[in-house]
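Give me the 3D structure for Putative Ni/Fe-hydrogenase B-type cytochrome subunit.
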Amino acid sequence: MQRPAAVYVWDPFVRVFHWSLVTCVVLNLWVLEEGETAHRWVGYAAAAWVGLRLLWGLVGSRHARFADWWPTPARLRAHARAVLAGEPDANPGHNPFGALMMLALMALVLALGLTGWLMQTDALFGEEWLEDLHEALANALLVAAAVHAAAALVMGRLQRVSLVRAMFTGVKRFE
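Predicted structure for Putative Ni/Fe-hydrogenase B-type cytochrome subunit (175 residues):
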């Protein structure tokens, strides 16, 4: 299968979403004080970004739409076979495993936003189980984000394309 030297895959909204979400996560995990107003608002902003990305998955550009990359069992099997056979990735945008990770990351961010908001309600304020759940979700997000970043580097190396650069430029350039 012949692949082009370069392909435009990630539109400006997808790239702004990605790096804005990275910024929100970094701020809330390592910079802002837990429970403070800034921490809460950055968490709400992260959840809002995910909500916008979900909408963009319905109406956005070709490779941003769910239909282009939804990780069906058939797509997952085909991608796994291609990777194991050393064949080039046939998916211009997210590969099916990357899509699974993307969905998991977004679900974690939404769950963090929900639990963070619930901790501020009169009914659940100060509930230790909710605080523990929020912290567990934050730790799960940290692990998932690390796996996501490592996978982008490894898959980029295997496929001979800088996925990190592509998330800045929108263009996958193949060696």
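Strands lie at 6-8, 171-173. Let me know if you want a second pass.
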